[in-house]
Amino acid sequence: MTHDIVIRGGTVVDGTGAEPRVADVAIDNGRITAIGDIAAEGREELNAAGKIVTPGFIDIHTHLDAQMGWDPDMTPVSWHGVTTALIGNCGVTFAPCKPEDREFLAGMMETVEDIPKQAILTGLPWDWEQYGEYLDSIERLGTAVNVAGLVGHSAVRYYVMGDRSFEESASPEEIERMAEIVGRSMDQGAWGFSTNRFAPHRAPDGRSIPGTFAEVNELASIAESVGSKQGLMQAVGAEFDVMRAMSDHSRSRVLFSYALELYDDGARLEMGELPELPAGSGARAAASINGLCGDRDITAIAHVRGSGMVFGLQSLLPVDGEAWIELGKLDLEGRLEAIRDPQRRAELIHEGKSQANRFDVAKAFPLGRDEVPDYTCETSLAQIAEGANEHWVETFLRESDESDGRALFNYRMFAGSIDEQADLFESPHLYPGLGDAGAHVSQIMDAGWSSFMLSYWHRQRGFYSLPKVIERMTSGPARVVGLADRGTLAEGMRADVNVIDLDAVAELQPELVHDFPGGAPRYIQKSRGFSATIVNGQISVRDGELTGTRAGMVLRHGT
Fold this sequence. Notes:
- The chain is α/β, with parallel strands linked by helices.
- The chain contains 17 helices and 27 strands.
């Protein structure tokens, strides 16, 4: 007998939390067919000696809905061991959609998730109206990563209520119709429903997006429809009593986003209300999450490291002002030439000293100049400037000059303290992630979260054991979504597999590129240490580079 692929002699970490063991793994026809001492050869043999073999990672918070249209390789997540991505989070999706509403949905995705409207309109085929037709369109496209989708509240509410969906209460008949559309979308393959109650998420006209102020009885009715099909309810910005109601009415799974913002006097929650949380620590936040969840099947997801904004000479500039605005009109080469001109540099410094900062530079930290960015640096831009007896603008320009414009700074709006995040991660109901891949693409780069989990939270800090860190990225998220045939390495499971050099794995420095339709910018971030990523039995990544194989599947609920 000959197998399609045999992975030889790796340390198998199967995703269940069980202790690792050295074994071979055989793959045939897209499934794992044997784990152990395998005598038969493979048509493709992968030497995994000294490496770990894991299930493919499952990213349960992405906004790759639009990007798939022009980047079916789904970078950067495909460079970081992710083999399944959940799209349709935060209530914003492209289906259901009447033909005349396409521009509206594209504009809403732009203002909420920083995905250029024109890229959305020109980069997607828009050959659907109902959710199932949208999934059909993705299937025709073909992707490098498996795709599971949620149907979004904003799209459903606008489809039913039109412009009234922004601020008016839905009638009983309209609520019934929304619940019916969500149920039909699940019958067509959606894994559940997402809603957004974060008021700063606005449509192009400045109004909070449809669903933000929906009454609880509307969500309860939809939750009953979702729960009857054992689906997932996902929320951002939802009050705890709303999430309790969604859980109690669905009697199924609820997932919510949790972003801890730190101040000198403690911690508060920004994207999910914690009214009972006083100023304090991540430990208190973890206790509040535990109290919310109790016996309910509610799960939180949070950042793995400081996040909020990445800025530098190559991207977003830190000062508002005429000289800086003119600088921003240039490409990187032109910006470098400008800051190296003594007169223009003096103008930039003068203006930077007199203008209001875009960022609190006490919360801005350099990513360094090494191949691997330093996400745990404890010396802020403000402290570097003070130590050099400079104004911080002078420090920014000097660092930019000396690095040929590649220096980047991470403004930590959320997860500002890595130690507070560690306390937060003590909650068994919270999963690290919240990479937001595909959204805010010119502002943040958190899509490499899985590599950071391995390099920092396991290897460097030892916070998670090897079995636990893999479980947190594989079988745990699979259970939250409802995926029964992925997330663990076992005979009969789908062959989504990573082969990883654990000593080497890491994120590489973010880089700004202009590869969106129309030349719009986005950050990308490659990795090191991924010897191979296998998706549905085909090698998608080899030694950190995509092979061109796009074996991803549209994963449909109920099939």
